[in-house]
User: What shape does this take?
Amino acid sequence: MQARISIRFRPGVLDPEATAIQRSLHGLGFAEVEAVAKVKVIELTLAETDRPTAETRLRQMCEKLLANPVIETFEIELLD
Amino acid sequence: MQARISIRFRPGVLDPEATAIQRSLHGLGFAEVEAVAKVKVIELTLAETDRPTAETRLRQMCEKLLANPVIETFEIELLD
Assistant: This one.
């Protein structure tokens, strides 16, 4: 089973990498860029065929390792 | 206009961060994880209403700053 986890900063959390990207784009002449957000996406292949079990396990992976719940939110998608 | 750029390593390019994530997940007992890939996603808000112009400009942003074409591929999506 293929899964995708998208991890974003919570609203209000400063994202210095996104700020740096926006500043660099402006410096290169891309003045139309009004906002930039960075999303960390992790795609996983799982040896698990049961969807509810896969969702539970992916949530545990996020809570234990992949996301920092204090400053980040995560979204889980099963792709097949 | 909202746009999303997804940047991935080309097939065959080693991704040490993905390898580290997979190893850590195995160490935490998530043995069902068979493969991990990391995708860098950048979401942009553009002050541009013409779709073809936006696509051209986003491609230029990727080529000039956001992606390294030697080791990475990029995909552009316009979200509205």
